[in-house]
Write a structure and sequence with these properties.
With 457 residues, this protein is an alpha+beta fold. The chain binds glycyl-adenosine-5'-phosphate.
């Protein structure tokens, strides 16, 4: 199936039915813009993260991993510009008090607008088109002026570090933890410039209108790399990083026709150049999955200024503040892209087969071990295979329903291989290995099974 033929509502209900994604606090009616990853979802999520970590830390000589705390000194968000400049334009319906995000509403009616415009610019566009924008709740067009609404989420953690009574915010973007630890990494790891720091961390935003399932949520994870280069030596590495990030998505199984580049017209306060990699989400269409930003020396200069600590890099006596090239990917959006790309349905003998065509490295379950029947010792023998294989892979053991039904169940959750132990297995010490996509079956000696699967997974 092409993505254009897929329906996002069907994928959302599939994600719930099969234990991939649940609405947060569902038994209390659900918390808007917050989602939980279920038993299979967390496996898929972890596999995406593992792949990202491998590509961005373990396979790169000059990149260092990090896991910084979420709570930070409140002054961090002043230095970063978030307390003053991190906002979306919001207007209120004067009739029913519900709120809209004005830049998105303008975009929906085909007007080029975004959150980086000034209040004046956005209000001019808003009031020139006001009749075309309807309140989702009451259907009216009686709106207040758009005002910038700050997206930072406050906590009530005691603030004993800074003067005054500033709140301790939850991170508005995960990457600030990298800038705060830049000096620690330099002092402990003694990298040569250029070098990178990579992290997967949570971010929280008070989104006015969380929407589109995992696409725009209030709590999400970002996988970031920050590459520190000598001042103005940014162009060549920026192009190289862009190429690598594009390739990573192809290696994740996303097809090239569902990906595109888009350059930012209006830049956020910290960036001198910015590109997005967009994905063609079912029903929603193309939208941002990852941002690649040339942040100049903005962040380290600001943190030097606000903290009073010199963050220059000393390269054999030559001191300078490095420039930063950032890649920032929303984990939830990539998860949704991977799930959407893999979701497929096909007709087989008048029956519909639902299959999740995930790459083996991403599949939540790698191997299902199925005794043909429970009796005559087949179950016990099959269980021995399960015990052995699950030392290495996430496996399931299933002995209920017909083997055909069990195959279909594994197809739906993307399990690439099913291993069936049948009556002949006792005689020939072999099992049947069935591959998910081709449904081809092959007889493999039990003694060779580990090596056989190793080569394929
Ligand atoms: N440090 C740079 C930064 O935060 P961003 O473009 O605001 O840049 C980077 O965010 C990525 O984080 C986006 O490309 C998107 O994938 C993800 N993201 C941003 N806001 C999100 C939200 N409300 N829900 C889910 N993902 C989001």
């Amino acid at each position: 199936m092409k993505n254009e033929e897929k329906n996002i509502d069907e994928i959302i209900s599939f994600a719930k039915e099969k234990g991939f994604v649940f609405q947060s606090s569902e038994i209390y009616g659900g918390l808007a813009g917050v989602y939980d990853f279920g038993p299979l979802g967390v496996e898929l999520l972890n596999n995406i993260k593992k792949d990202w970590w491998k590509a961005n830390v373990q396979k790169k000589m000059n990149y260092f991993g990090l896991d910084s705390a979420m709570f930070k000194d409140p002054r961090v968000w002043d230095a970063s510009g978030h307390t003053s400049g991190f906002s979306d334009p919001m207007a209120e319906c004067k009739d029913c008090n519900s709120r809209i995000r004005v830049d998105k509403e303008l975009e929906n009616i085909g007007i080029d607008a975004d959150e980086k415009m000034s209040e004046k610019e956005i209000n001019e566009l808003f009031f020139a088109n006001i009749g075309k924008i309807k309140c989702k709740k009451c259907g009216g067009s009686n709106f207040s002026e758009a005002k910038n609404f700050n997206l930072l989420v406050k906590s009530n953690l005691g603030d004993f570090t800074s003067k005054g009574d500033k709140p301790v915010y939850l991170p508005g973007e995960a990457c600030q933890g990298i800038y705060l630890n830049y000096k620690n990494v330099v002092d402990s790891m003694h990298p040569k410039i250029p070098f990178g720091i990579a992290q997967i961390g949570k971010a929280f935003r008070n989104e006015i209108s969380p929407r589109n399932f995992l696409f725009r949520t209030r709590e999400f994870e970002q996988a970031d790399t920050q590459f520190f280069v000598r001042p103005e030596e940014n162009k060549e590495p920026y192009e190289k990083i862009k190429k690598e990030r594009w390739q990573w998505y192809l290696d994740l199984g996303l097809s090239v026709k569902n990906l595109l580049w888009s350059q930012h017209k209006n830049l956020v306060f910290y960036a001198s150049d910015a590109w997005d990699i967009e994905y063609n989400f079912p029903t929603y269409g193309f939208d941002e999955m990852e941002g690649i930003h040339d942040r100049t020396d903005y962040d380290l200069s600001q943190h030097s200024k606000f903290s009073g600590v010199d963050l220059s890099f000393n390269d054999n006596g030559e001191k300078f503040i490095p420039w930063v090239l950032e890649t920032s990917m929303g984990m939830g959006r990539v998860f949704l892209a991977v799930l959407s790309e893999a979701y497929d349905k096909e007709k087989i003998d008048d029956e519909e087969r639902r299959v999740l065509r995930l790459l083996s490295k991403l599949a939540p379950v790698k191997v299902a071990i199925l005794p043909l029947v429970k009796k005559d010792g087949l179950k016990e023998e099959a269980y021995k295979i399960y015990e052995e294989l699950s030392e290495k892979y996430n496996c399931v053991f299933s002995d209920t329903a017909t083997v055909g039904k069990r195959y279909r169940k594994q197809d739906e959750i993307g399990t690439p291989f099913c291993v069936t132990y049948d009556y002949e297995s006792k005689e020939d010490n072999s099992v049947t290995v069935r591959e998910r996509d081709s449904m081809k079956q092959e007889r493999v000696k039990i003694g060779n099974l580990g090596d056989y699967l190793n080569k394929l997974i």
